[in-house]
Amino acid sequence: MDIKQIPVTDNELAHQFEMKVNGQIAKIEYMMSGERMFLTHTEVPVSLEGQGVAAHMVEKVLQIIDERKLKLVPLCPYVASYLRKHPEWKRLLAHGIRI
């Protein structure tokens, strides 16, 4: 199964992005404040760890943030780490945010 072919959906009621893999849900939780999206927590089921699920989800969520013209506040350590490894996405950071 190609992880990159699995869609990431926005569950607005639960305030989380979700990706269903083999019947399990990986998620990135968020909060909104005006035009700023705070990514607060990334969670991948143990059985899916090490398969690139979290990285794929973060990439897709950053694309969504960009498409919606929002600014990012990465409170989740995994998301902050991803941004350090992929500096091209730092342009989405809200004013004054450093990682």
Automatic annotation (TrEMBL):
According to the entry, every stretch annotated as the N-acetyltransferase domain falls at 9-94
Which InterPro entries is this protein grouped with?
Answer: Acyl_CoA_acyltransferase, Gcn5-rel_NAT, GNAT_YJDJ
Recorded hits in Pfam families, A to Z, give: Acetyltransf_CG
* Coiled-coil regions listed in the entry: none
Domain of life of the source: Bacteria
Q: How is this protein named in the record?
A: N-acetyltransferase domain-containing protein
Q: What species was this sequence derived from?
A: Chitinophaga skermanii
